[in-house]
Specification:
Low-confidence stretches: none
Order of helices and strands: EHEHHEHEHEHEHEHEHEHEEEEEEEEHHE
Number of helices: 12
CATH topology of the largest domain: TIM Barrel
Oligomer: single chain
Largest sheet: 10 strands, mixed
Number of strands: 18
Bound molecules: pyridoxal-5'-phosphate
Length: about 375
């Protein structure tokens, strides 16, 4: 182990998740795999080839910067779509490389059409419509201007999609908001159709919407979190479980994260462990020092709360998480040795540590715990 920890990605689990998604959406709906945030911390470099092996050929990212990374690892036949940030300077590169992108205002549309005209390449656009999320999206009052621009420049773009994003389909409390968004979306699509603009694909659904709202599926789904084997929220899992039972509700965790015991130390009763006085040993203890800290994606809010596995036993993190280390209480284990495997996320013997438990303890979302896993941790694909 060169680095202080490493990540393994299970091909088998990934395949099973893709199959699960395919079964839900059916064979005619395109699956766009969301790989923003370095593939939710899993690693773009490793996830892209795995996805392609499973017949995925559409990848979504948030920025042109991420699109550059995907371009490096994808095969020729796959497409890339950018939801969000493209600087004015990057837009030409995006159009030149035939990357699909969201148009969410008049400014971007104007600029894209100008560039497309100049470099004689069609811009592959998705019109993102504001339906109530209030992030990005074209406002209804601008529709007519957009339509006019499109009519005038019909030779310089391909209308790949008309789309929107829901304000939290993963939570029942947003039901009314999502329902209203969907009906606005349908109305707006009719508006563009009346003006002669029918997109290649209509799309609105992320993971949660795909699972909870079949009506939102349309022609393409943009799935992030579930491909990696995580439920967007507990509510999503419960819904699925109640409706379809255990067998049809199984996602498999793709990632596991390991480190090794770096040092072992005895602590006497009455001594503090680590920085400050957050942990007082109330008996004689033995602790193991693990070379993973908040700089390596192990959140500081797991101080005195986190758990790890050593020798198939679940053990407590004691004291504060430092930049590069945690201390683990191994008092009850007989022969822990330097170099023993430590599981931070994943399975060891009969026990496992889920990202969900990790995130509950640290008051973070699954998404956040994953996205914080640094890019420089080595990642290996395993069967
Ligand atoms: C992140 C994102 C998704 C994917 O969300 P998941 O909950 O991970 O499936 C889909 N669409 C847009 C616009 C996003 O930003």
């Amino acid at each position: 182990m060169q680095n202080t920890s490493y990540i393994e990605l299970s091909k088998k689990a990934y395949k099973s998740n893709i199959r699960f998604i395919r079964k839900i959406v059916g064979k005619d709906v395109k699956i766009s795999i969301v790989v923003k945030g370095n593939a939710y911390g899993h690693g773009i470099e490793q996830i892209i080839p795995m996805a392609e092996e499973n017949k995925i050929n559409h990848f979504s990212v948030y920025s042109a910067f991420e699109a550059e990374q995907v371009l490096e690892y994808k095969s020729k036949k796959s497409d890339i779509m950018i939801f969000g940030y493209i600087s004015d300077e990057q837009l030409e590169w995006v159009i030149k490389n035939q990357i699909e992108f969201y148009v969410f205002d008049i400014y971007r549309l104007n600029m894209a059409l100008d560039i497309a005209k100049r470099i004689k390449k069609k811009a592959r656009i998705h019109l993102e419509l504001e339906t109530g999320f209030k992030r990005t999206g074209i406002e209804e009052e601008d529709f007519l201007t957009i339509v006019r621009l499109l009519k005038k420049n019909y030779r310089h773009f391909i209308l790949e999609g008309i789309c929107t994003h829901f304000a939290g389909a993963e939570s029942i409390s947003n039901f009314v908001r999502v329902k209203n968004q969907l009906s606005l979306y349908r109305k707006y699509c009719r508006y563009f159709k009346r003006h002669g603009f029918i997109p290649k694909r209509k799309h609105t659904a992320s993971s949660a919407a795909t699972l909870l709202y079949p009506l939102t599926i349309f022609d393409l789904v943009r799935v992030g979190i579930i491909q990696y084997g995580f439920w967007p929220t507990a509510e999503t899992l419960i819904f699925r479980y109640n409706k379809f039972g255990d067998k049809e509700s199984s996602l498999k965790r793709v990632i596991s994260w390991q480190s090794k015991v770096m040092a072992i130390k005895s602590v006497n009763r009455g001594e503090f462990i680590g920085y400050g006085n957050t942990y007082l040993a109330n008996k004689n203890m033995k602790i193991a020092i693990i070379p993973v800290g908040y700089n390596n994606g192990f959140s500081r809010s797991l101080s005195n709360k986190g758990r790890v596995l050593i020798q198939g036993r679940r053990l407590d993190v004691v004291g504060t998480v430092t930049m590069n280390t945690i201390s683990v209480n191994i008092t009850d284990l007989k022969n822990v040795n330097i170099g023993d495997e430590v599981v931070l996320i994943g399975k060891q013997k009969k026990l496992s540590i889920s990202v969900a438990s990790f995130s509950e303890m640290s008051d973070n979302l699954n998404y956040q715990v994953l996205a914080r896993l640094p890019q420089n941790i080595p990642r290996y694909v395993v069967e």
